[in-house]
Design goal:
binds adenosine-5'-diphosphate; binds magnesium ion; about 25% strand; alpha/beta; 19 strands; elongated; six-stranded antiparallel beta barrel
Length: about 475
């Protein structure tokens, strides 16, 4: 059923059940899915609605949407539990103050940008809903890392939720430095007051990113040495022996001690260590503070620069050490948000080295059971299929940036059934920095243009040198 536009003016709507509405608009009204509208029935109070889908038909835009609640007479509250059907209503853009009603008085909405289709209305994410897992998806260059930065800055400004950032491209290593273009002295001062620790493999102005081999659980030690407890039982058994005394050993004393044992398995284990060059890895803390000590103290943010190691497995060792330690101490229920950019590095379904498997298994476990212990994930990646499905399916919040692949969008539609199809379909047309948010951390699915970063971006593209 549709309403003829000329009956009631330029845009008009009808609702049979008070839950959904249908509307007709002139073609130049540029109505898009996601837009917020105020519906004013001929009888009864105004209601807030959101457009789901639009199609062109007979020279008109026709579409439908959801009714979100009744606006109080003074415009100061939204009753989301009530709405009424109507035979005819006018349709107009909702202004900023009306859209803000969605967030209620008590909820803390982090400003992350502006709504795409409702002018300069601030778009917000619900800070209290980062106690769920979040999946952040978009093709390369869509603006994921930048947008993550915007969200993390707001979490730092407005919450006490400690962040641990797994940063594969050194994008967040300057999170402590205000962007010189940002003139907001007050905000800069508040950010500067937060305790942000940046750990890097080797950098003169950052704390070294180190792991203590002795602290790794036996299974993780085995993974470092690519040992299987059953297939390689003799060598694994030597490792267990070594474990008993390893607390007093440094990397350079491990080999002599093993050779002293004189067994074939001990010699094999030495050869394995030497072939893998494990003892040469700079990641081992000798005397230095280990990453797990830093995270244990729960600074406001800990940035782990995983990109600068000489051996690729070192980044996995850092991730495993941190995740295993948090898991081992889960009963303490000290909240932390684990932000993993390029999450496919750590939990792709396609990797099969022992370290990859160990990291992925731990992440699958945290995805499944971590929530109640305060271990929350925020995972960013380019394609949904690049993160293990058991992890994606545990995410309650979705952020989607530009993604053109229909296969990937279909997959997201299946996993995140709560996202209106017409909104997902807009993703291929997104510009850089535009995002769709759905799930618990928004009151209704919303599309936004991300705001600007307050602190400096690290990493970044290398420019082509010009003559
Ligand atoms: N909202 C934005 N405003 C300004 N620049 C942006 C924005 N989003 C992304 N960029 C810039 O575009 C480039 C690619 O963005 P990035 O966040 O790294 O993409 P992705 O992580 O999805 O590959 C970066 O140089 C970044 O600075
Ligand atoms: Mg990125």
């Amino acid at each position: 059923m549709t309403v003829a536009a000329n009956e009631t003016g330029p845009e008009s709507a009808v609702s049979l059940d008070g839950r959904r509405f249908e509307f007709t608009a002139p073609i130049d009204a540029a109505v898009e899915p996601g837009r917020f509208v105020v519906l004013r029935p001929d009888l009864g109070g105004a209601q807030l609605g959101q457009v789901d889908g639009v199609a062109l038909e007979g020279g008109m835009a026709r579409g439908d949407g959801r009714i979100l609640g009744i606006i109080s007479d003074d415009g100061g509250a939204l009753d989301r539990d009530r709405s009424r059907g109507f035979g005819r209503a006018t349709v107009a853009d909702a202004d900023a103050a009306t859209v803000e009603l969605l967030f209620g008085a008590a909820a803390l909405g982090l400003p992350v940008g502006a709504f795409l289709d409702s002018g300069e209305v601030p778009a917000r994410l619900l800070a209290n809903r980062f106690n769920r897992h979040t999946f952040w998806c978009g093709q390369s260059g869509s603006g994921k890392t930048y947008a993550l930065g915007v969200v993390l800055e707001q979490l730092l400004l407005h919450t006490g939720l400690p962040l641990v950032i797994f940063d594969p491209n050194a994008d967040f290593v300057r999170l402590r430095e205000p962007d010189p273009r940002s003139a907001d002295v007050d905000t800069n001062a508040r950010l500067a007051a937060r305790d942000i620790r940046v750990l890097r493999p080797s950098s003169p102005d950052a704390q070294p990113l180190r792991v203590r081999f002795v602290d790794l659980p036996p299974r993780a030690k085995g993974a470092v040495l690519q040992l299987d407890p059953l297939d390689d039982r003799d060598e694994y058994n030597e490792l267990v022996h070594l474990e008993a005394m390893i607390g007093s050993l440094t990397p350079d004393t491990i080999v002599p001690r093993l050779l002293e044992r004189g067994t074939a398995a001990a010699r094999a284990l030495v050869a394995r260590m030497q072939n893998l060059r494990v003892l040469d890895w700079p990641v081992w803390a000798v005397g230095a503070e280990a990453v797990t000590d830093v995270v244990e103290a729960r600074p406001d943010a800990t940035v782990l620069d995983l990109g600068g190691f000489a051996y690729p497995d070192e980044a996995l060792v850092v991730a495993l050490a941190v995740l295993d330690d948090l898991w081992a101490k889960r009963e303490q229920r000290r909240p932390v948000l684990l932000v993993i950019d390029e999450a496919h590095n750590l939990c792709s379904p396609d990797q099969s080295s022992p370290l990859h498997i160990a990291v992925r298994e731990r992440l699958i476990q945290i995805a499944a059971e971590g929530r109640k212990f305060g271990l929350w994930l925020l995972l960013s990646t380019q394609r949904p299929s690049r993160v293990h499905p058991s992890i994606v399916s545990q995410c309650d919040n979705l952020a989607l940036m530009k993604m053109t692949s229909p296969v990937d969008l279909d997959e997201l539609a299946t996993v995140f059934g709560f996202v209106p199809a017409a909104m997902l379909e807009r993703s291929p047309r997104f510009r850089q920095g535009e995002a769709l948010f759905a799930g618990g951390f928004v009151p209704v699915p919303t599309m936004a243009r991300m705001g600007v970063r307050l602190t400096r971006e690290g990493g970044g593209d290398v420019a082509v040198p010009m003559r």
